[in-house]
Amino acid sequence: MEISMIGSSQAKIGKIDLAYRELGFSDLRGLNPLRSDKVSVSARRSKSHNGVRLFVGLPLDAVSECNAVNHAKAIAAGLKALKLLGVEGVELPVWWGIVEKDAMGKYEWSGYLALAEMVQEVGLKLHVSLCFHASKQTKISLPDWVSRIGESQPGIFFTDRAGQQYKECLSLAVDDLPVLDGKTPIQAYHEFCESFKSSFSPFMGSTITGISMGLGPDGELRYPSHHRQAKSNKILGVGEFQCYDKNMLSILKQHAEATSNPLWGLGGPHDAPTYDQSPNSTTSSGTTADHGSLHMQTSSFPATVHGKVPLMHSWYKTRSHPSELTAGYYNTIVRDGYGAVAEMFARNSCKMILPGMDLSAEHQPHESLSSPELLLADIRTSCRKHGVEVSGQNSSASRAPGGLEQIKKNLLEFVRSLNQPELHSDDVPEEEKEAADSLRVSSESGVHMQAA
Asked: What distance in Å separates the CA atoms of residue 156 and residue 142, rounded to the nearest whole number?
């Protein structure tokens, strides 16, 4: 069995030793190799360090828009120190907007190849995340040529009821439409992946051991229903449906007519709440599974492929689960909304990444009726039913209260889900050495929590 935990993308490499010890693994040395506010941490079980491999995420902007390695000397020094710490590898986000920035089919991999060589030279492994979305945090946009097309064809972007567009990724409604100078987005993604596979072939299967496919906003398989930040004094609302661009409305009309409900296809929901409102009435959304399947079929890699689904845990304790509905998951108290997605992951031999392993209901606003733990269990049940291996990831927000303890609890839940009754919560003792021993399990099982 392999288990890993990924820490916040806002963590500092210098705090790896502390986190590692708090999770129960005490044999790392107290080095402080590199300070960064954009670093993620993960650990995976192996023979070293009582069966734990540690993966550390490189900064989101490790490669600049000019394809140069940012802070190359600091990263090089950090990589060497991470190797001394016993870290297994690093995770590298590879951005579509940087590699294929200027023109379709014109790929520039030099910055990422330089980083891969740096990683290989120090003997670390590499998990690559292919990012087909933009990032406001690091001011990384979609390729310039895609943005120019969007100016004349706004229908390639998600659109809300007020007509506001979400321009950080392409609408899933155009996946198989020739909107990119005669090519479909799926064709563009496929060619990007093929170029990546060719350019990085010397690293595949040796240095590069895992690849995450970007599936939507922030790399997750969902609609951007919460892209507007809630006001600081407000509880996160249910979000808004993003089905008002012309292509999405066309799909809605087709589905309505196919189900003999043509009136449903006249427009998007008119009585659903807005971004910051609490639930009162919602309508289901869909097609995320088809979208994910198309992405996962874009290329085959000689490395483990992962995809990430969201953890829309607000309002989970209501009957309709409205935050999941607006994100594209028709998961209610009487309906399983993740079975079709899990089946799609299984069909494509892809591992599922679940974020929010560090979140707990007790640290969420009571009024939001949230339960990250119950939703995680809900999704894991669907994955177990379809034989999908599950990976775990922390939330994007840094320093979640009680995060490390919650990760430990979730690890035990993952282990118990494999029908290993010998490991229970009361098996975790206070001492670090005993805690490390309590998480030692067989290498033949199927759960895998992976950095992404």
From this structure: 12
Integer Cα distance of 30 and 178 in angstroms: 54
Measure the CA–CA gap between 53 and 410, rounded to whole angstroms.
17
Q: Pinpoint the alpha helices (H) of 209-349.
A: 246-258, 288-296, 322-327, 339-347
380, 310, 304: which is closest to 339 by C-alpha? Answer: 380
Q: How many Cβ atoms are within 10 Å of 210's Cβ, its own excluded?
A: 24
Q: Tell me if residue 285 falls in helix, strand or coil.
A: coil
Q: What are phi and psi of 300, to 5 degrees?
A: -110, 140
The size of the chain, in residues, is 452
Q: What is the DSSP string of 408-422?
A: HHHHHHHHHTTT-TT
Query: Which pair of structure tokens corresponds to residue 279?
Result: 């639930």
SS3 11: strand
pLDDT digits (tens, 9 = 90+) for 117-147: 999 999 999 999 999 999 988 899 999 999 9
Cα 351 to Cα 389: distance, rounded to the nearest angstrom = 5
Q: Which of 91-105, 168-182, 418-432 has the lowest mean pLDDT?
A: 418-432
Specify the 3-state DSSP secondary structure of 191: helix
CA distance 268 to 242: 9
296 and 388 Cβ atoms separated by less than 8 Å: no
Closest among 411, 418, 413 to 42, alpha carbons compared: 411
Contact criterion met (CB below 8 Å) for 123 and 77:
no
107's CB contacts (< 8 A; 6+ apart) are 99, 100, 192, 195, 199
Other residues' Cβ atoms within 10 Å of the Cβ of residue 102: 9
Residue pair 101/95 in contact by the 8 Å Cβ criterion: no
pLDDT tens profile 166-187: 999 999 999 999 999 999 999 9
Q: Coil, strand, or helix at residue 213?
A: strand
DSSP for 98-115, please give it: HHT-SSTT----HHHHHH
pTM, 2 dp = 0.81
Across 226-260, b (16+ Cβ under 10 Å) vs e yields bbbeeeeeebbbbbbbbbbbebbbebbeeeeeeee
Enumerate the H helices of 86-184 as residue ranges: 96-99, 110-121, 144-152
